[in-house]
Amino acid sequence: MATQRAEIVPRGRAALDGVLATGAGLGAGHLVALLAPASSPVVAVATRAIDLTPGPVKDWAVSTFGTADKAVLVVGAIAVTLGLGALVGLVARRSTPAALIWGAALAAIAITAAGVDSARGALWWAPGLVALVVGGWALPRLVRASGNADVAPMVDGRGRREWLRLALGVGSVGVVGALLGQWPRGSGGSSAVTLPTRSLTPFPTGLEGQVPGLSPFVTPASSFYRIDTALSPPSLDVSSWRLSIEGMVDHPFSIGWEELLAMDAIERPVTLECVSNDVGQNLIGSARWLGVRTSELLTRAGVQSGADMVLSSSIDNFSVSTPLGALLDDRDALVAYEMNGAPLRPEHGFPVRLLTPGLYGFVGATKWLVKMEVTTFAAKQAYWTVLGWSDHGPIKPSSRIEVPRPGSDVSSGSVKVGGTAWAHGVGVGKVQVRVDRGGWADVSLGPDAGIEFWRQWLWSWDAAPGDHELQVRVVDAAGKAQDESVANAFPNGASGLHTIHVVVG
User: Which of 88, 193, 425, 462 is found 20 to 30 A from 165 (Cα to Cα)?
Assistant: First the structure.
């Protein structure tokens, strides 16, 4: 019978049977993962793939794909899984039991990947199990419809129509399950959180209304860049969340959500940048953050002599090493729970995140924060420093041209040129632009929200016809110009002048 089936069923249709059954399982598992988001089969497997990926490959992915790195990884994981499903379908041409065993092995990988996640929920096993059941239900039926002797012969078209109806139904399970499982994901637990009512500090109006294409002075949370190692933001409940302060302290303690909210809170405008942000690129954003000073929490714990670093950890065991001094000095590092007047969104760290002004995110901005361990750089290393990145990571002063866009065509005459610039810890003194490597011209600066926040800038250029090169630099408030030497992001941030070319007609 197996030989007869193999002769009847074309290889292409057999492979498609495997793809459809596997896709149905993935879609159903993703839908059930609404109960345990990180345990969706694709998410769980892709997350473990991130954990096992060598550092240089991770660096390449972030620098190449930026904020799309997770989408690329998920699409790749789905493609690989469906490809393996096609192989399962080919096995089913000769032996359905053998194919089911191979399919069960794929499901077991997903269930295991979900089970080893430290942030797993109580139902971590359910999405993978549902994927197994649905895929195991669909595959033999597709196989029978493709050529089993119990199905009406295809010579009169009835068998082909039977297979087509079944294939469409199974395929719909995968697509609808994936869409329904993804559509409700969004604000998660943060939407149900009510923060104490506070009056926001009056904030200046930005220049973006004057020049289309200029970055908003305050970056909306919905468009704020996201770089982290979590494919699916951990789902945390404020009723059970706690932050522990431990390590080299005299009085270790933990604090819950309500107690944190009862502490004195401060609001700080801070520009946050990813260390992987190449010169002129978009892994940077500016927001108004509110939270509790880290210095207040650390003082309560009583930091012991000899400590020089705090190793902060997220619920999913990601870690960040922050110089102790940066969490105690007057820059006002925060355990932040509010962004732009609203609770943190899950993708930005809900319920709380560490925020250290002046430091790249990988050494100062732990999301989904649950632990701060006072220690030393000699004793501990964090996630990215193990991979060779700097362990201090001060943000380098830099600037970028946002208008006009690189490679654009503009009309001769008065052309508006604009962008953003930043110089953490000192503040922006001035911004200068030059054309075709000529002299530097001062530009007009936008509103000032403090030394840890970027400045918008504008310049009116009398553009002559031809191909032209534009460059920008920031000079900090102490009179020091940004580093013009070209350096890649690894290991402590990119440097160089943002340079664009435009054609003036």
Answer: 88
CATH code, domain carrying 277: 3.90.420.10
Q: Note whether 443 and 302 are same-domain residues.
A: no
pTM of the predicted model over 0.70 = yes
DSSP class per residue in 6-20? HHHS-HHHHHHHHHH
One-letter amino acid for residue 184 of the chain: P
| DSSP conformational letter for 217 | S
Residue 407 φ then ψ, to 5°: 80, 5
DSSP 447-503: ----TTS-EEEEEEEEEPSEEEEEEEEEEETTSPBPP-S-B-STTT--BS-EEEEEE
Task: Output the domain CATH number for residue 460.
Answer: 2.60.40.650
Instruction: Please state, in angstroms and rounded to a whole number, the distance separating the CA atoms of residues 73 and 116.
Output: 20
Sorted by sequence, the CB contacts under 8 Å of residue 179 that are 6+ apart come out as none
Give the mean pLDDT per block of 10 residues along the chain (505 residues).
56 91 93 84 81 71 73 85 93 90 91 80 88 93 72 56 88 90 60 78 91 96 90 85 98 97 96 95 96 98 98 92 97 97 94 98 96 97 90 95 95 96 98 97 97 98 96 98 95 96 96
Residue 282 domain boundaries: 221-387
Is residue 289 included in any domain, yes or no?
A: yes
- Of 114, 153, 111, nearest to 133 by C-alpha is 111
Indicate if 383 and 406 belong to the same structural domain: no
CB of 334 closer than 8 Å to CB of 282: no
- C-alpha–C-alpha distance, residues 114 and 36, integer Å: 9
Q: Which of 298, 393, 295, 285 is nearest to 339 (CA)?
A: 285
* 15 and 159 within one domain: yes
